[in-house]
Design goal:
Blueprint: E1 3-9, E2 23-29, E3 37-47, H1 49-55, E4 66-67, E5 70-72, E6 78-84, E7 96-99, E8 110-114, E9 118-121, H2 127-131, H3 133-146, E10 155-158, H4 164-175, E11 179-184, H5 191-201, E12 206-209, H6 210-213, E13 224-229, H7 234-242, E14 248-251, H8 268-273, E15 277-280, H9 283-287, H10 292-308, E16 316-321, H11 328-341, E17 348-353
Parallel strand pairs: 10-11, 10-13, 11-12, 13-14, 14-15, 16-17
Antiparallel strand pairs: 1-2, 1-5, 3-6, 3-8, 3-17, 4-5, 6-7, 7-9
Helix pairs in contact: 3-4, 3-10
Length: 356
């Protein structure tokens, strides 16, 4: 039995209420490890948009673990096996593991989980990379690999250029010999925004803000074959304009938050003269087209690319979860609230467990 900490919530946040207001740090004792189970010490866990949807009661998959009557938040992360029950196959003490599915409650220091619910991976040189394998690296790969057969010299344009997925897309495209144009939302010039922009310029070939697109000749004489939209609205329309003849427009989200009934305008030129194709992307759907062994091999290959330096971490906001720090009870809910409001312009937030 190990004493742990967990970020929990009794009820979802509603209306103007921040998710920080419903999160509470609780102390608990891990249950005894039963047959087929392992004891996992969490090493890192991201705060994803999906997690915010869960905290707002807007996601169909609910957390599966509780402390008392409160649900444990967090759907992704990486941990280390520190104990095994009887009849555990394929895992042993010291293995690095990530969740197979959703709902395992990764915002906690320790967990007793069925071994069958975990995937063993090769440890990367930085655990923050393992924490974003399934929700950043894999979707970026699938967007580049499955949506369009890219040729060396092809160009990809994307909005939400500062997102972790967009930064990883740029790296995946570069490995294939292609190039990316990353578009950022217009923002005041601050030290934080300069840091983020510099990080994006390290991986993307061209970086523009939305207000610069209409006056830019960025697509001239470039074969822009793929547009990746996760914003929708006027930003999506800009991507359509930048596509070359025969290009593909893919939507995989709506950071703009303008609603499911919102639309963008299309012209006859888009459909007839430019023959642009439109489709959607869901990472879960594309992942389901591969066997578990194929997915494991992909994750292994990502870690190998990272350890060799061919992939690098996107700009992350790494927050230490030190169980011995008395400020952790107020600090962690605020971190989640900041991640929801994007009040800090420092990239995807990843919780890194353990004292300095």
């Amino acid at each position: 039995m190990v004493q742990g900490q967990a970020l929990t919530f009794e009820h979802p946040a509603h209306g103007e209420e921040s998710v920080a207001g419903v999160l509470k740090l609780q102390h608990f004792d891990t249950p005894l490890v039963q047959d087929g189970q392992v004891l996992v010490q969490m090493l890192a866990a991201p705060i994803n948009p999906l997690d915010i949807h869960v905290l707002r009661g807007a996601y169909p998959v609910k957390p599966r673990f509780q402390v008392g009557s409160a649900s444990i938040a967090g759907f992704d992360g990486v941990g280390k096996v520190i104990g095994c029950g009887e009849d555990v196959k394929g895992l042993s003490v010291g293995d690095t593991v990530i969740p197979k599915g959703y709902g395992l409650g990764t915002w906690r220091t320790h967990a007793v989980i069925e071994a069958s619910q975990l995937l063993k991976i090769k440890p990367p040189t930085q655990m923050a990379f393992a924490a974003i394998l399934k929700t950043v690296v894999l979707p970026a790969f699938l967007l580049v690999e499955d949506m369009k057969m890219l040729q060396p010299g092809d160009w990809v344009v994307q909005n939400a250029g500062s997102s972790a997925i967009s930064q990883m897309v740029s790296q995946m495209v570069r490995i294939k010999g292609g190039h990316t144009i990353s578009i950022l939302r217009d923002r005041p010039e601050t030290e934080a925004s300069r840091i983020v922009k510099a990080a994006i310029q390290n991986v993307a070939d061209v970086v523009l803000e939305e207000g610069q697109v209409s006056t830019s000749a960025v697509a001239k004489d470039r074969n822009v074959v793929l547009a990746l939209d996760s914003v929708w609205g006027s930003s999506a329309r800009q991507l359509v304009d930048l596509l070359s003849v025969g290009g593909l427009f893919v939507n995989y989200g709506q950071f703009s938050g303008i609603g499911k009934s919102s639309s963008i305008s299309l012209t006859h030129e888009d459909l007839f003269w430019k023959s642009i194709t439109f489709r959607s992307f869901r990472s879960t759907t594309q992942s389901a087209k591969r066997t578990e062994d194929e997915l494991i091999q992909l994750l292994v290959s990502f870690v190998e690319l990272f350890n060799s330096g061919l992939l690098t971490l996107p700009k992350l906001n790494v927050i230490e979860w030190d169980p011995t720090n008395p400020d952790v009870e107020t600090k962690l809910p605020k971190v989640a609230g900041d991640a929801e409001s994007q009040a800090i312009n420092t990239g995807k937030t990843v919780l890194l467990f353990g004292p300095s």
